[in-house]
Amino acid sequence: MTTEKPKLLIIEDDKGLQSQLRWHFDQYEVFVAGNRDEAITAVRLNEPAVILQDLGLPPDHEGVEEGFHCIREISSLHPDAKIIVMTGNADYENAVRAVAMGAYDFYQKPVNAETLDLILQRAFHIYQLEERHRAEEETRQGPLQDVIAGDPAMLKVCRMIEKLAPSNVTCTLTGESGTGKEVLTKALHRLSPRNKKRLVAINCAAVPENLMEAELFGYEKGAFTGAAKRTQGKVEMAQEGTLFLDEIGDMPLVLQAKLLRFLQERVIERVGGREEIPIDVRVVCATNKNLLEMTKEGTFREDLYYRICEMEIHIPPLRERHGDKLLLARHFLKMYNKQNGSNISGFTPEAVDTIDSYAWPGNIREMENRIKRSLVMCDDKLVTSDDLGLHSNESTFLNLRQVRHQAEKSAIIRALGMTESNISAASKLLGVTRPTLYDLMKKYNIIVN
Ligand SMILES: Nc1ncnc2c1ncn2[C@@H]1O[C@H](COP(=O)(O)OP(=O)(O)OP(=O)(O)O)[C@@H](O)[C@H]1O
Q1: Residue 380: domain span
Q2: Is residue 2 part of a domain?
Q3: Same domain, 309 and 183
Q4: Domain limit, last residue, from 114, 139, 164
Q5: 205 CA to centre of ligand 1 in angstroms
Q6: Which residues have C-beta atoms less than 6 Å from ligand 1?
Q7: Of 157, 161, 181, 183, which is best to mutate to test ligand 1, by the most ligand atoms within 8 angstroms of its C-beta?
Q8: Residue 145 lies in a domain
């Protein structure tokens, strides 16, 4: 096993000091540069964790400008590196300037080996901690990388998806149109052991009722006029993978019975066929309808409801995801900048206000479309409300009672999100009693699992 030594770059033009330092720091893999150009090349090639840099670099031995220039370049090239600046004895002012510019620490000459050792050890330690944190962040985001979320309630949804992924539990994602049900289903499939097989989706609202059975279960040759050859249905195509039944609330009642049979017995029969085909799929459903209401109205089978909602995950609408609006806006801005080759740097303060207060009835789909369009409309470096097709007055609430209700409801949802729906903890956070919180939850129709 090889143990790599941590990398240290020394930027120092004094040859004597160079070799002294190189010799002293033999526990590190040391690179040496005598000027800015050599330093930049060494940073590019070796990505050192820690850099020990003299501020007086040639050709400006006596000054500090070349040294500052070097710090700026390294900071943008390798922002994670810890730069320790070496300055002259009484040059406290420039040392502080260097730190303000992005250096991690400073050290005043003449060199005292013990002190310098300690400063370097600490810098390497911090670098390693940060590196570990970055690696953890990357793996934590892993397959949920396409799902942008910062809001506590949404983070909870993401954690649930991660927990459910390895199991075979049938899940139903509920939420308004455009909240990300499909995106989360894809993440669930990607995280599951079935990810080598297909995720097959069927939109139950888009298939005409008379074709639904054939679409789901397939058909044999000659089963009906036009059935020229045996054809697999979506269920069979998803064999060993995941079957995504989108808009399940729109499934006709007759088909609901057939779907229930399949979910209970895990076999299908193609239309016009007699053979029972065993099926192994994980089923995920999505709907923007209230299925429980529908069972009461008799438009959705109660037995099917309980079968598909072994786990129900509610995706909150964008207007309730505090903090996510700007996070998503910036994400789409970056994404479409890249796609269009444009370089719009952000939003005007007034556009930020509008994004934050607008109710986003079309949720994330609407946000994506508006940002995409704004990049085409934008004449400047910053996107305005006009570019987004929104006017500030559209987004402001008009009466005080409404503002108060909205704020109160948001605070409660936020507190519940932050406390994982623990009523005692949430009421403490909000500074109200438990019964008051229950009353408010009832008033605003906030339900927790
Ligand atoms: N958390 C998210 N991060 C990034 N993009 C998202 C997120 N949620 C949704 N989107 C994007 O928003 C759009 C709508 O998402 P999606 O189709 O998953 O919504 P939906 O709830 O399934 O909508 P519908 O009910 O209308 O089918 C997609 O383009 C998707 O990529």
Answers
A1: 318-395
A2: no
A3: yes
A4: 139
A5: 17
A6: 146-149, 175, 177-183, 246, 286, 288, 364-365, 368
A7: 183
A8: no
Q: Are residues 296 and 325 in the same domain?
A: no
Q: What is the ipTM of this complex?
A: 0.98
Are 240 and 178 contained in the same domain?
yes
User: For residues 57 and 14, what is the distance between their CA atoms, to the nearest angstrom?
Assistant: 9
Domain for residue 449, yes or no?
Answer: no
Cα of 287 vs centre of ligand 1, distance in Å, is 13
pLDDT in tens, 108-157: 888 888 889 999 999 999 898 888 877 766 555 545 778 988 888 898 99
The identity of residue 102, as a single letter, is: G
The amino acid sitting at 209 is E
Which residue's CA is minimally distant from atom 10 of ligand 1? 180
Comparing C-alpha atoms, which of 217, 231, 295, 200 is closest to residue 263? 217
N-terminal to C-terminal alpha carbon distance within the chain: 50
Measuring CA to CA, which residue among 84, 153, 165, 156 is closest to residue 117?
84
**Token duo for residue 326:** 């700007």
Residues 189 and 307 in one domain: yes
Interval 28-69: pLDDT, tens: 999 999 999 999 999 988 889 999 999 989 888 788 889 999
Q: What is the whole-number distance in angstroms between the Cα of residue 75 and the centre of ligand 1?
A: 36
**CA–CA separation, 426 and 206 (whole Å):** 42
- In this structure, the residue with its CA closest to atom 25 of ligand 1 is 177
- Give yes or no: residues 240 and 167 share one domain: yes
Structural domain count, the chain: 4
Same domain, residue pair 21 and 78: yes
Token couple for 122: 């600490």
Pair (172, 109) in one structural domain: no
Give the global pTM: 0.62
Q: What's the gap in Å between 148 CA and the centre of ligand 1?
A: 10
Phi, psi for 347 (deg, rounded to 5): -120, 150
Residue 430 DSSP symbol: H
CB 86 within 8 A of CB 94: no
Q: What CATH number corresponds to the domain at position 37?
A: 3.40.50.2300
Q: Is the residue at 57 inside a domain?
A: yes
Query: For residue 178, how far is its CA from the centre of ligand 1 (angstroms)?
Result: 5
